[in-house]
Write a structure and sequence with these properties.
This protein is mainly α. Helix content is 50%, strand content 8%.
């Protein structure tokens, strides 16, 4: 079964019964009730995550803080016409209730975020922390539910994450960096990347124009729906409006992804200069280079023993 976000159907419509208890949970939290008590109330009422599991305190909290629930995109900007579960103001008030503890996962940058996937189930690996060290790991189903993680494949009907793969972040990042930088030293690699970068920038331009056209179509549909018309015609327009808004959301998501790549600053030089660049480059530049060169990094199970070779665990899909 595909994983969806609590409060929404897979197509993006609201689920009234889920919206009701999520709003009630928000009200209880803003009224001063403890997170643990609110979570117990949610479970006692018989509500479950979209994966069918009882709610855990941290999963419920992360779900309520997801921008989508407030009709916002990943950058905190309002999405035109997006349905909301709680208001942006309520979400900001919830954030203000955060205890402010230091989270090592959030304080570290993960340049392979979005590119590293599980070699067993193909789900995106998430940043985490284990034994005092940063790792990438396949999420559990409840975590994937709360984070609404994208899959690496196109088949939306496949099973959930296996939760069985993890790898030390530094080890994985260093191994991928070696391969990415080695690829830059191949004859003609710079030219190929520059050509690919030009294609990406051209697509960014096309997407921006397309988004403006989509926004104009949405406005025209909104204006038409404010007029009097037969019910059958109204249903057709509502269907077109919904499809057009989804098209706009998908285009904006694609645009943000490509803009990360378009910002890549390609390093030049011999292997020592490339390694020096990698060590000093900001995470955004590393991520942009990785996304420009690599489609996916699949991470497989680890072997027992001393000093295992990290390259044996990774399979790189080049662009």
């Amino acid at each position: 079964m595909p994983v969806r976000t609590a409060g929404f159907t897979l197509s993006g419509d609201l689920v009234p019964e889920e919206v009701a208890y999520l709003r009630e949970a928000t009200s209880r939290l803003l009224a001063g009730e403890r997170r643990a008590d609110v979570t117990r109330w949610v479970n006692a009422e018989g509500h479950r995550t979209t994966a069918g599991n009882p709610w855990r305190e941290e999963v419920l909290w992360r779900t309520l803080l997801r921008p989508r629930l407030a009709g916002l995109d990943a950058d905190g900007q309002p999405i035109d016409g997006a349905p909301i579960v709680i208001t942006p103001e309520e979400q900001e008030q919830l954030k203000a209730l955060s205890p402010g503890r230091t989270d090592p996962v959030e304080n570290r940058e993960y340049p392979l975020g979005g590119a590293a996937v599980c070699g067993k189930c193909d789900w995106e690996l998430i940043p985490s922390w284990a034994a005092g060290k940063p790792i990438y790991r396949c999420p559990s189903e409840s975590q994937a539910d709360s984070l609404d993680l994208p899959t690496a494949g196109e088949d939306a009907a496949r099973s959930g994450p296996c939760g069985s793969i993890s790898m030390n972040a530094v080890m994985l990042e260093d191994a991928v960096a070696e391969l990415a930088l080695a690829e830059l030293l191949r004859p003609g690699a710079q030219e190929r990347l520059e050509s690919l970068l030009a294609d990406v920038k051209a697509e960014v331009g096309r997407l921006k124009k397309g988004i403006k056209q989509i926004e104009s179509r949405v406005k025209r549909l909104d204006a038409m729906l404010r007029t009097s018309m037969p019910d059958e015609a109204r249903e057709g327009l509502l269907s077109s409006q919904k499809a057009t808004r989804k098209e706009g959301r998908d285009a904006r998501t694609r645009l943000r992804f490509l803009e990360h790549i378009a910002d890549a600053s390609l390093p030049t030089g011999d292997v020592d200069e490339l390694i020096a660049w990698w060590k000093k480059a900001p995470t955004a530049s590393k991520r942009a280079l990785i996304l420009l060169e690599i489609a996916k990094v699949r991470v497989g199970p680890g072997r027992r023993g001393r000093n295992p070779d990290p390259h044996e665990r990774i399979d790189v899909e080049w662009r």
